[in-house]
Write a structure and sequence with these properties.
With 839 residues, this protein is mainly beta. The chain is 5% helix and 37% strand. It contains 5 helices and 66 strands. The protein has a 21-stranded parallel sheet that branches. The termini are far apart.
């Protein structure tokens, strides 16, 4: 081979003798310079069954692991590693026989990408081009840590198990032919991101007909771009499951839980021709499988977009079973069911469908899709006993709208949000804006409107005539009229929340919620389940499925996480039942998200009901994990326990016996001694502060002659040294339940700030501090009080943490959660968001 990399001839056993043993290839070729393969007129046929795997990877013929950009020019070469008897199989054989992927194919890839350093913007990155690859386990794969930009161009990927196996990120595949691959065209692996597939041809992939596999499989990956590709009809129609693209989150493998769902992927300007299902969202929804450690059979995807695509001659164009998907401006021709919303369990929400006049079918039970059941192998699966009148569909559409079918026995809401419209939302857009003002003009001038604005009538300037002067005054306050205090939902009543970094990869904190009634129905059996939402109310996961009702929960980083794909910083959830177990005990269960079984059980001998539970860092001597504080009924002590060390227990003595709410925080400003406890009792009293392993409270605050119902601890004024306490009045003041914030360890009766919102007319049942990321622009669920968005963004970091508030009852439809932040310099200025909680 020349010094310029030309004439690369890995089949030359004389030149590359160190790579062979007795004529058998045993070593992979690690490519660290640009190479051009030596020209040859026949395929290179090679036995790769003995190729050694390097420490960081599975076996591969070629490995790109130098952190520099290299070109691999195939020079028209075909590499064929199929076994001799496999070469005799024609395509029809693949479609009609079961291929033994372990015996019929070698466990070896063609190219493995393992370049861990990202290239500079000016660097074109590495390239693999002008080559054909046949018979590999994965023709082109990458390591999870791959980061360098790579472009795969003009490559034929044929008769492999998988043509491409994306891991890592920053790879573009373009102008390639991906066809006749046994399991599928490509499998987007866990946590891979920023792969681009442009102008490729896909045909006859997943000849095995494996459910959820197809030309493109996106499993727990994100930010893929799939554009300008052709997905061509199958040569033979022997498999019921024939799809182009599927998106889902795998349940797990080897006791690992997938952290991510397939999210934020763009599918645009593609042609789909002749598929039973062209794009299949969440195909594993309702599948009962041993890898599903939650036993909830959920399959998550969100934030994906399908637009400007052309669907031809398909049975089903787009099949949705998930939430937060956008479908817009697609063309359907000779497609039997253009768009289907398949509600396997209780709810589907925040799906945007901008397809004027397009047919959208709602499938709630198996009888809705009998003629298509062979294409939906799991069907309603675990949710088959849930009836149509228990199903809720929420769709966002522009006018003109699509045509909805089969919704008569369900609840269908077509609206921009899940918010219940306020009286001044005249066009029911869920947004109070100038469209509503325009609708109001004629009524306003003709007779005066019955709608009240800030307790004034339509003669606002009191000049005895209703005219544009009054209207102008009205407009000034129009945008603050919708209090965003009620939401549409489906079943279930939340009774407690826990807030924390339960999913570190998500923006802001997450919210775990327990309910007073079962929120799961699996195979006809009802279960109480802890549901985990992101900060905006999108369901991320579930855990703690139980036949018994949960009473209280708390979140903390209690345990080290095992498994190579888990995030060790993820918070776990501590949960206690509302009633004793069969042994008459009240143990504390520690759950990792996505698990039905507890990772740890503590307090197994506790026979006393638990009044309050909180989590914090109470033990600081060389330990990174959090502890739990329990207040038992009729007890004068707080018990501290450590989920990661069953031998560690501490007590604080002589505490108030009737504590109803506790919160942990760094209240004394001395981080080296860990967190403290703030507690309230159901009578006029201060907030009591306790340290672990003490004999009584060491300080008190908020002693201002009020009775408090709930307490939370957090950084509510951006003081980096210590936390503050937030308390809710037990009794309404002027019809409102207010939140007061106090400096801990202070005798001052003057609060730092007060949250006083008009929609807080129902007493809260749970209060938690948390980190909420303000959106740009604000969503329709968010509202500002006496502050502009520009001011909010400029000042929000000085406002401190948000506080999450769960009302004890609904206003009319259902109970939402509220995120709230109030300016410590001016309590009239607040930001809050209403968060729907759907099961």
């Amino acid at each position: 081979m020349g010094s310029d990399g030309r004439g690369f001839d890995p089949w030359n056993q004389t030149r590359w003798a160190a790579w062979y043993s007795s004529g058998t290839l045993i070593e992979p070729f690690e490519i660290d310079i640009s190479v051009t393969f030596e020209a040859r007129t026949t395929a290179w046929e090679i036995d790769v069954g003995s190729v050694r795997a390097l420490a960081f990877a599975h076996p591969a013929l070629f490995i790109l692991n130098a952190n520099s950009s290299v070109d691999v020019n195939g020079n028209g070469l075909t590499i064929d590693v199929r076994k001799s008897y496999v070469k005799a199989w024609d395509l029809y054989y693949y479609y009609t026989h079961t291929i033994n992927i372990d015996n019929d194919y070698y466990n070896c890839d063609a190219f493995l990408l393992y370049q861990t350093q990202e290239a500079d913007e000016s660097d074109a990155g590495s390239r693999i081009f002008n080559i054909s690859l046949k018979g590999f386990n994965r023709a082109i794969s990458s390591n999870h840590d791959h980061r360098r930009k790579v472009t795969v161009q003009n490559v034929v990927l044929n008769r492999n198990l998988w043509a491409l196996f994306p891991r890592g990120r920053n790879v573009t595949v373009e102008n390639c032919n991906v066809n006749e691959n046994v399991s599928g065209g490509l499998y987007g692996e866990y946590n891979s991101a920023h792969w681009v597939f442009n102008n490729n041809i896909f045909k006859d992939n997943n000849t095995r007909g494996t459910v959820s596999y197809g030309d493109i499989v996106l499993d727990a990956c994100r930010n893929y771009t799939i554009t300008n590709n052709q997905f061509q009809p199958a040569t033979y129609n022997t498999r019921d499951y024939h799809i182009a693209v599927s998106l889902y989150r795998n349940a797990g493998e080897s006791d690992d839980i997938r952290e991510f769902a397939a999210k934020n992927n763009l599918i645009e300007n593609n042609i789909f021709d002749g598929y039973n299902i062209a794009i299949d969202f969440a195909p594993r929804m309702g599948r009962v499988h041993s890898l599903d450690q939650s036993l909830e059979t959920r399959c998550y995807t969100s934030g994906n977009i399908v637009r400007d695509c052309d669907f031809r001659n398909c049975k089903i164009g787009i099949l949705l079973r998930n939430n937060y998907t956008t479908v817009e401006n697609n063309i359907f021709s000779n497609t039997e069911k253009e768009i289907v919303l398949h509600n396997v369990f209780y709810s589907m929400y925040h799906n945007i469908i901008n397809q004027p006049g397009c047919n959208v079918w709602l499938w709630s039970v198996e009888s809705d899709y009998t003629a298509y059941s062979q294409y939906l192998p799991y069907g309603n699966g675990a949710g088959e006993q849930i009836q149509p009148n228990e199903k809720f569909y929420h769709v966002i559409c522009k006018n003109p709208m699509p045509v909805f079918h089969n919704f008569q026995n369900t609840e269908l809401l077509v609206s921009d949000t899940l918010l219940v419209p306020a009286e001044c939302d005249l066009d029911s857009s869920m947004i109070i804006d100038f469209n509503d003002l325009q609708l109001l003009v004629s009524d306003w001038l003709s007779s005066g409107t019955s709608i009240q604005f800030t307790n004034q009538n339509t003669n606002i300037d009191l000049l005895n005539n209703v005219n544009f002067a009054d209207f102008a005054n009205c407009a000034k306050s129009w945008f603050i009229e919708n209090e965003r205090s009620d939401v549409f939902s489906v079943g279930g009543r939340p009774i407690d929340i826990a807030v924390g970094d339960i999913a570190v990869y998500e923006s802001g904190n997450e919210i775990a919620v327990i309910w007073d009634t079962p929120v799961s129905n699996i195979g006809g059996t009802n279960y109480y389940t802890i549901i985990i939402y992101d900060q905006n109310g999108l369901e991320l996961d579930r855990c703690g499925r139980s036949s018994d009702k949960w009473g209280k929960i708390a979140a903390g980083n209690f345990l080290p996480d095992t498994g190579w794909i888990k995030e060790n910083a993820n918070y776990e959830i501590a949960a206690v039942h509302s009633q004793p177990d069969s042994n008459g005990k009240y143990p504390v269960y520690i759950f990792r998200k996505g698990s039905q079984e507890p990772a740890v059980i503590i307090a197994q001998d506790n026979a006393i009901g638990i009044l309050a539970i909180t989590a914090g860092n109470f033990k600081t001597d060389g330990d990174e994990y959090d502890e739990i504080a329990l207040k038992l009924q009729n007890s004068d002590r707080i018990q501290f326990m450590k989920p990661s060390d069953a031998s560690w227990t501490r007590y604080t003595l002589n505490v108030q016996t009737n504590i109803t709410s506790m919160a942990a925080g760094e209240f004394d400003g001395i981080k080296s001694n860990g967190d403290e406890i703030a507690a309230v009792i159901p009578s006029v009293s201060p907030v009591y502060l306790y340290k672990a392993d003490a004999t009584t409270h060491y300080e008190q605050t908020a002693n201002c002659g009020k009775s408090w119902s709930l307490v939370a601890g957090g950084n509510f004024n951006s003081d980096s040294r210590r936390d503050e306490v937030a308390v809710v009045t037990a009794n309404a003041e002027n019809g409102i339940y207010k939140i007061y914030y106090f400096t801990a360890q202070s005798s001052s009766t003057t609060p730092l700030k007060i949250t006083e919102l008009e929609n807080f007319v129902i007493p809260p049942i749970s209060l938690e501090a948390g980190k909420f990321n303000v959106e740009n622009p604000l969503s329709a669920y968010e509202k500002l009080e006496n502050v502009t968005y520009a001011q909010l963004i400029q000042d929000i970091t000085s406002w401190g943490e948000h506080i999450a508030v769960l009302p004890s009852d609904k206003k009319e439809y259902s109970i939402p959660l509220f995120w709230i932040a109030t300016n410590p310099q001016d309590s009239n200025k607040s930001h809050y968001r209403t968060v729907p909680l759907l099961r």
